[in-house]
Amino acid sequence: MPPSKNSKYVFASIATALFVFFLFAILIVLLVRNRDASRKILNEAQYNISDSSTISQTAIPDTRTTTGDSTTWTTVRPEQESFKSDGRTTQIYLPSTISPIEEITVPTRSLHVPHCDIPSTYESACPSIKRLSSTNGDQNGLIHAFDQIRQSSVLLSDTFRPVEYALNLSITDKNQNILGGSLDLLAEIVLKETNTILLHAGGHVQFPDDGKFTLWECANGRLICVNSITRLTDKNLVVISLSESLKPGTAIRLSIDKFESEIVGNPGLVVQMPSKWEKDRAWIVSTHNNHANTSRFVFPGVDEPQVVAALKLCLQHPKDTFARSNMPKESSSDSSDGHATTTCFHESPNIPAQLFAFVLFDNLKQINTNPNTSRPVNEKTTIETFVGKHLHNEDCQWILDEASQTLNKMTSLTSMQYPLEKLTILSTPIPTDGTRALGLIQLKETWIEYPKYFFPHSLLVSQVVQQWVSNMITICDKCIQEGLASYLEWTVTSAESISDTQSNNISRRFHETRNRLLHSESAVRTNMASLSINSLKPTTNRCADRTALVFYMLEQAYGQQAIANFLAVLFLKFSWGRCINAEELSLAFRSVANADGVFESFLDQSHEMVDDYPVIHINFANSSLVVSQDIDSSNKTYVIPVEVVDDARKISKVLLNDTQIAIHRTAAYVVAQPNTYARHIYNVENYAKLVDCVGDRGEDRCPSISRDSLANTFNDLCWALLHNRLNEADKTTQWRAVFERLVAHGNVVQGDCACCMEKQGAAKAQCRWTWRDRCSKITLLNAI
Fold this sequence. Notes:
It holds the Pfam family Peptidase_M1_N. The chain has about 775 residues and is α+β, with helices and mostly antiparallel strands. Among the domains are: about 365-470, Neutral Protease Domain 2 (Neutral Protease, domain 2); about 475-610, no CATH class. Helix 3 packs across helix 5 (about 455-465) and helix 5 crosses helix 6.
């Protein structure tokens, strides 16, 4: 039976609907692919992965294994070692005025694969770029935008995030004062739509008029015209105005084909150019990576510590000089005229721009390993060391020994292998003690010459430690980052017996730093020395010192294994990623220790709290021990572990917050262990018992109290007296007896404290002004 007209109509309608649905599905797929194109390009550039690879939380660069003429790519998983090598290291000997220098090269590990490269055949139809100053009249309303930038704290990373720098730098003559360069930058637009690109570029960076700025939009493969280039010299910024706006998530490649940086006087460079008659001095041009915001004076980019990106660096330099950078050398070639060499390095992992580093040098001597030493071998990493020509090989072996010891110890502490095949250590004329760039350490040349002192050893260990802290991970709060590095340096030098002196003992360094810091903070609070002037020693970074004390305090309270687990969590979760904030640090510590509130109460807003510490009251009488905390006018309270020991060596550990803790205890006296960053104040009855522990036979009478504990006890007593914190005015007779006995011992209390404790102190010439200015204002002394 033939189909009716109605059935034919129904079949035709269904076919039409299916066809329209099919076209609509194709359109959706195309739109989704276009939306994801920028992100795919950025992921491939940043992690060097294919579609079949998996992006791990920790970005670990790929490795390449070469067998004969074939090459295979392998994605390294997180459980594998970063930057795996196939073990074949080539030694190339180059000519030198001193001795052959061993060049460390490795098989190509992650050959730079171009992503979103600007086609060489493209034809630009863009008008010429306007070169403006921030004071020029501009019809596009940029001046108003410039005023807004000046009036605010600009974070370039809020709108523009670099992913990869391809940087070429050139200095072809040793007397040249210009470092030439070009930059190819892969980046992403983030957060909000914009028609301007901001880069950091200090006053030492210039853009010649014949230089080109080219911007390529990656997903659609098209050119975006640059309308104008404007310098904001007071903000160290260059503003690139575009012909159209870019949406968030857009991947772009920005090419600057020419810029120039002045060498002499550049705060981002270290320069030593010896005269002709200084034949033994080295010629050196290097980056100065010890401070933030210095890379902007060498090359344009985003110079913010929380922004990390990969670096692909090539250096053109005089043929009779040598080049080192963060990464091992990948290739080198001579120029056609034979006067210059171009050295290219492997692509780095993601690190801040301020840690992009290089050194160009000649006339330095390489230290060779003494085969007769029992130096611990690091099988993965070769350590190369360059020092001044006048130093002897045997006098510098300690650098190789201690650097290798530190590499091994840090691997154990962090559960993270050092990621590079080489670590370069150089003696250079840097204005600071040392720099900590990944794979490239510079030490001040004067310190290298005095290994009998402890500081050069501490400095070297510190810089190696910061290969992990500052490079593999970065912490947003630089005070915490520097303090963690200091604590780890204390740990390594103590555990490895580096520079076999008493100075390397971690407990000793904790107490010295604690006393110095508490004394200096007393002076800051009162605008005068609370103790004798001789007891005050300046510290270069009180905030970092305070943080190091807190980490040691946490180790003493929760154990070394808790700290090791904490470090393992940090490096597993955050290696080569963005900076870690204080909340994430606190959560990481809570995950390995039952320490709710301790970490954050000391380390949140660390810069604002640099002069703050808890004051703990310990009242022990009639078998009752009561521990409480002073609450100051700001209502700031701490969560702090307190460890109290008695004459029978019985220890009580409490976690103190804003409430007091009462414990029944039968003992003659108690004293707090000096392993916390706090001051401890006791009642007069307990002080009277502790005075018996002073003197020649004090150790026999009080074997449970260490000398450090006793010294800290009476230092804190002096602080409490001079700051009017002893409020037991109804016990004047007992206080007078304690003071008289302490003064009679002669060396227990000194300075202003001794003057105020002595009844006849007001009549003594050396104490007269102290009594008038300080002692007469103390409530307890007036009552006595």
